[in-house]
Structure formats: structure tokens, C-alpha cells
Specification:
single chain; 4 helices
Length: 110
């Protein structure tokens, strides 16, 4: 584990060093990079920022009222009736409720 982290560190340091060397190289005179550098930065051409207005005072939210307790008529029943499942048509035919066989068939001895 330690070896892999050292290798990763070396790789990224080498990569960063190469990027810095590439940035230091002087581009050709007709390159767009030099033309961009001769122009003043776009921030200097913009108007100075307007003075910051103080934020308006924040109003606290109105207090939340607790809900009123329900009367006995409105209360939800504690034990609602359970769902009644519809009987399948197959169950009507198989009223002896024999469980279905699952798995491989038993080998017959011939």
C-alpha cells in the first residue's frame, strides 16, 4: 500500500514539473497567447464595483403553533382492519391446498 502511494506521488510531481516547464517555454510571436497578453486585463476596463448596500434586517419567522389535539371522532383507528386478499381462481380449483412442488424432479430408477 505504501509503495503505491509513493509511486502516485512521484507520478504527479513529475507531471506537474513537466506542465511548469511547458508553461515557461516562449510561444511563437504570432501565437494568440502573446496577443492576449498585450491587451490589458478585462477587469481594468470594467467600472469599479458599486458600494455594497447593507443587508436588510432579517425578520424572524412567525412562531409555529402546535396542532390542536384531535377529538375522538377525528382520531385514526389504532388497529385498522387488515387487508383481505382476493382468492385466486386456481385456489378455487385446488381447494385441498396442496403446496406446489419445487426443485428438480426425483430421478426414476429404471
Amino acid at each position: 500500500m505504501l509503495v503505491s502511494t509513493i509511486q502516485n506521488k512521484r507520478y504527479y510531481l513529475k507531471k506537474k514539473k513537466n506542465e511548469l516547464e511547458n508553461n515557461l517555454r516562449v510561444p511563437p510571436r504570432n501565437s494568440p497567447a502573446l496577443q492576449d497578453r498585450s491587451l490589458p486585463p478585462p477587469q481594468a476596463q470594467q467600472d469599479p464595483p458599486s458600494p455594497v448596500e447593507p443587508p436588510s434586517p432579517v425578520e424572524p419567522p412567525p412562531p409555529v403553533e402546535p396542532p390542536e389535539p384531535r377529538t375522538d371522532e377525528e382520531q385514526v383507528p389504532i388497529n385498522p382492519p387488515k387487508r383481505v386478499w382476493k382468492q385466486r381462481e386456481n385456489d378455487k380449483e385446488n381447494q385441498n391446498n396442496v403446496p406446489k412442488k419445487r426443485g428438480r424432479k426425483a430421478k426414476s430408477n429404471k
